[in-house]
Specification:
The complex is a heterodimer of chains A (about 400) and B (about 230).
Chain A (H helix, E strand, L loop, with lengths): L1 H13 L1 H34 L4 E6 L7 E2 L2 H6 L4 E9 L2 E2 L8 E5 L4 H4 L4 E5 L8 H12 L3 E4 L1 H7 L6 E6 L10 E11 L8 E5 H10 L7 E2 L1 E6 L5 H11 L7 E5 H10 L4 H30 L1 H10 L3 H29 L1 H8 L10 H28 L2 H8 L1
Parallel strand pairs in A: 5-10, 7-9
Antiparallel strand pairs in A: 1-12, 1-13, 2-11, 3-5, 3-12, 4-8, 6-9, 7-10, 8-9
Helix pairs in contact in A: 1-12, 2-9, 2-10, 2-12, 2-14, 10-12, 10-14, 11-15, 12-14
Chain B lengths: L2 E14 L2 E14 L3 E5 L6 H8 L7 E6 L2 E2 L5 H11 E4 L11 H6 L9 H14 L15 H13 L5 E5 L7 H18 L2 E5 L3 H6 L2 E6 L2 E7 L3
Helix pairs in contact in B: 4-5, 5-6
């Protein structure tokens, strides 16, 4: 209706502090809701996009119990297995412990080829890029025991370049003289999957093992997990059973699962994240709903006299009710649009802020649509009660309340 | 002369707790077209209730009400709303202007329900404000106007849709003597020059003197009618 726009706008501006605070509450709530949903969808996507043709072999006891290095040879021999690499968490930091990033010791001879679908070598030594970068980095890793390849975000954050030697302070594998481990950066990779963390560092496992052995710090070096690439036609379930069967009698029993399942186990270690996030999201929606309901109830009480005037002038009950409902919708949609817009615009900064904790953080269009839906529902639910109350009010009663 | 308002056997009761209050008791009342009638009587005698029932803002418990040729008892609430916008102009004691709107926007408000174009609505509202002598106050908000000016804006809003009947509930009640006189002169002019039927609820003897007829009510009964019709 033509009059609605003017009246709704003027009413909202008349109580601009109340309107502004309500819009701010909705903005914050919708931003948080989008963020919470995005965390869940990002985790979900991370699980679903993991390679099903890659297995993770870990100790059946715990992820923190190492597997013997001798297992690698036996795993490679299992039918359906294409390639295997050790995968050892290093757990160090550069300068500040507050900016953690993942470092893994891997088999340098086959790691780059095994992960060719997850990442692309973007830059190698002496500025080599393009197709020849992979070969150049492989050659550099073969030649240099301290060679390491890093992700683009890690390089950008620390201003590291190919050719730099970087000191990493170990928290697990501390040297006897407590000096830092030095790594020579020989390449920078680009993730090919959104959930492949661009803030990782991969280096030679033999550098780790030989250094620790030379210092007499380990008697029997092992690896945290083995990453196993399968042949295209191999059945992951059968191969997993075959691997676990090999080590049924020890010395360490294994638990083998696809990378996707492993990822979901890993996330489950944090607790039931979707349920937890769902509870937070629900609480946010209800909190903002109560806030808007309160605002609209106040507005409804203040409009009783005005409803009487409008009805006396000939405005219908439905028209008077619609005015308040529109007001509720305008408040919610304004706040919702701002919150949803901020969530979309701040996707990149949030991704950077959460870093390796949640690689590939993305605000999906479906999340934004859901938030729009929630905003509309909150607007209607908050406004419908007070609006119907005004609509049903007898004109004479409403005018008496004005007097 | 055609009857603008015809009330026959109209009763209205209100319940307050266990007590039932009879506000109108089988009232017969008629106002002819072009008439200027003052309704007087003590508080609670049923004056404002007559106005509300005649304007379709309230319904009687029993009796028949016909206004401007329409049987209000036969009309639904949704039919009464557009009927009011076409036939009735209300003027209230406390002006009842929208504080968020300017004088011009307040006068344009009832015109929003008409099929007029925006420019025509504005022109008609400006004309109504000109009639009440407030051409120079169009962009003022109610709080920027004096009480007399606010009531004149309310009168301009009441006549904006060119209704047949103006119902005024103590239009001078909140005004000083000078403003009250000015407002009543304006209402009288609307009655005489524009032929509007005017029913005014009042306690003010001056209003009674200006009216063509004065109806006195007490305890819901019409006790006396003085003066002659148009």
């Amino acid at each position: 209706m033509r009059s609605s726009r003017v009246l709704v706008r003027k009413h909202l501006l008349q109580h601009w502090v109340r309107s502004g605070l309500t819009v701010a509450a909705i903005t914050l709530a919708m931003f948080l809701l989008c963020s919470v949903i995005s965390i869940v969808t990002t985790l979900d996507r991370a699980v679903n996009s993991e390679a099903t043709q890659r297995l993770v072999v870990q100790s059946a006891v715990s992820l923190f119990v190492n597997l013997p290095l001798g297992y690698q040879e036996k795993i490679v021999a299992v039918p359906g297995v294409e390639d295997v690499t050790v995968f050892q968490w290093f757990g160090g930091y550069f300068k500040e412990d507050e900016q953690p990033f993942a470092q893994f010791a891997v088999d340098h001879e086959n790691f780059l080829h095994m992960y060719a679908k997850d990442m692309r070598v973007a830059e190698g030594p002496r500025g080599v890029t393009g197709d020849s970068a992979l070969e150049a980095v492989q050659a550099a890793m073969n030649a240099d025991r301290r060679a390491a390849i890093i992700g683009p975000d890690l390089a950008r954050e620390n201003n590291w370049k190919v050719g730099d030697t970087v000191p990493i302070i170990a928290k697990i594998f501390t040297k006897q003289d407590r000096s830092a481990w030095e790594f020579d950066i020989v390449g920078i990779y680009e993730p090919l999957k959104s959930n492949f963390d661009p803030r990782q560092m991969f280096f030679r496992f033999d550098y780790l093992r030989e250094t620790l052995e030379a210092e007499g710090m380990v008697d029997d070096m092992g690896t945290g997990v083995y990453m196993v690439n399968l042949e295209a036609t191999a059945d992951p379930g059968l191969v997993s059973q075959a691997i676990d069967g090999l080590f049924e009698n020890g010395p360490q029993r294994t638990k083998t699962a696809t990378e996707a399942v492993f990822q979901s186990f890993f996330i489950a270690m944090l607790g039931n994240v979707p349920a937890f996030m769902g509870a937070i999201g629900g609480a946010i929606v209800f909190a903002v709903l109560f806030s808007v309901v309160n605002t609209m109830l106040m507005a409804g009480r203040q409009r009783r006299g005005e409803a009487g005037i409008l009805k006396a002038l000939g405005f219908s009950n439905a028209c008077v009710a619609r005015l308040l409902l529109y007001e509720s919708l305008v408040l919610c949609l304004t706040g919702g649009a701002l919150g949803i817009g901020i969530a979309a615009l701040f996707e990149e900064p949030v991704r950077w802020a959460v870093g390796g904790a949640l690689p590939g953080y993305t605000v999906e269009p479906s999340t934004l649509l859901l938030a729009v839906g929630v905003t509309l529902v909150v607007g209607v639910v908050a406004g419908i009660g007070p609006a119907l109350g005004l609509g049903r009010l007898q004109p004479a009663d409403a005018l008496r309340s004005e007097a | 002369m055609n009857a603008m308002i015809e009330m026959q056997g109209v009763s209205k009761r209100y319940s307050r707790g266990n007590e039932t209050l009879t506000v109108l008791d089988s009232l017969d009342f008629q106002v002819d077209a072009g008439d200027f009638v003052a309704l007087m009587g003590p508080s609670g005698s049923g004056k404002s209730t007559i106005l509300n029932i005649a304007g379709g803002l309230d319904r009687p418990d029993s009796g028949r009400v016909s206004v401007a040729g329409s049987d209000l008892g036969a009309m639904s609430s949704s039919a009464l709303a557009p009927w009011r916008s076409m036939h009735i102009g209300f003027v209230f004691q406390s002006f009842n202007l929208m504080p968020v709107l300017t004088a011009l926007e307040n006068v344009m408000l009832p015109l929003l329900l008409t099929p007029l174009r925006s420019s025509e609505r504005k022109k008609q509202a400006e004309f109504a404000l000109d009639v009440v002598g407030l051409s120079d106050r169009m962009t003022h908000r109610p709080k920027q106007l004096s009480g007399g000016q606010e009531q004149r804006v309310a009168i301009a809003r009441a006549i904006a849709t060119d209704p047949d009947l103006i119902l005024a509930d103590e239009p001078t009640g909140d005004l000083d003597r000078e403003s009250a006189t000015s407002v009543m002169e304006l209402l009288q002019r609307l009655n005489k020059e524009m032929g509007k039927t005017l029913v005014v609820v009042t306690h003010d003897p001056m209003v009674g003197e200006l009216a063509q007829r004065t109806a006195h009510l007490d305890k819901g009964l019409l006790v006396d009618v003085t003066g002659e019709g148009p």
